[in-house]
Amino acid sequence: MHHAHHTTRRLTRLALAATTALLLAACGARDEHAGPHGNGPDAGSSPHNAADSAFARDMVPHHRQALEMAGLAVGRASSPAVRNLAAEIAKAQKPEITTLEQWLTSWGEEVPGATHHAGKHAMAGMMSEADMKSLEKSRGAAFDRAFLRLMIEHHEGAVASAETESERGAHSGAKALARRIVRTQHAEIVTMRKLGYGLK
Q: pTM to 2 decimals?
């Protein structure tokens, strides 16, 4: 009898330990997928609306194309200022893509595929496949001029989309990102226009 009682207590302790381990694992999994900004006000669980979803879905491929364009500058641009600007654009937009993708996933939305070029429903400012191929083929000063012209147009599209999100969105994190995109890309547009004047 004593042995049976001891065995029961031992099994109870093991069951409690297993339950505790499962609870800890569940908490860890929740923290890992809590959203791009953890459990703060900008987490993926923050209320969102159709404008937020459209903003994220449009901005992901738009930013991806900007990274593609910036990558071309590495071996093609002749101006150090253009190469530096391209590097800054990539540095700013790469983590923003990750954040936008995490939001879409947390909202149960589909993350856009790897299409980079303008199509029937593409966001304003997206380059066509012909534009991208032309940019890829250019070198030196010709590349610098084409890159600045196309990236200004690209940024203008992003700023317009971000301004719409600021006005119509509900998700606090997405609206904050939109405001940052407006500030950052507007400043880069000013810089690119100045660089363009110097290359003429």
A: 0.74
